[in-house]
User: What shape does this take?
Amino acid sequence: MNIVLIGYRGTGKSSIGKRLASLLWMDFVDTDTLLIERAGKTIKEIFESEGEPAFRDKESAIIQEVAAKDNLVIAAGGGAILRPENVEALKKNGKIIWLKADPKTLLARVQADPATAETRPNLVTGGVAGGIEEITTLLDQRTPLYQAAADASLEVTYLTIDDAAQRLTGLI
Assistant: This one.
């Protein structure tokens, strides 16, 4: 069985996932990292050169591959839940846990990561691109999808990585 972490960018899927995998003696896979390694470009570069649909196709292929494996903690990209086939694949052999945090915390975490601007695209165009408005717009769109996909959820706004990983062991 796999443990799958979903949630918006900045919720700590990768950091918490690595710690959780260590606690559970499981392997860790970050679908975004795997996609970047295979594509040889950042997510932002894929969005710019090939468009979002091509990125989502690549993401789906990675998800199908890792979901077919066993004994993994999987950090799925924040938009992985946009395609029902991704959720279906992840649920076949996995328990999906939605990591949640408030928009201000997400913005602070994203802004604190120096690589974000260079490697991650804005996901909303116009005046809302890149700031709190983008986060709230996307959370409004994605929250029902995260809720529908999740077997459990954990509010991580005020948790450390260690605390979150420890609490997740109780949800599994």
In short: The domain at 2-159 is CATH 3.40.50.300 (Rossmann fold). The mean pLDDT is 91. The first helix runs from residue 13 to 24. The radius of gyration is 15 Å.
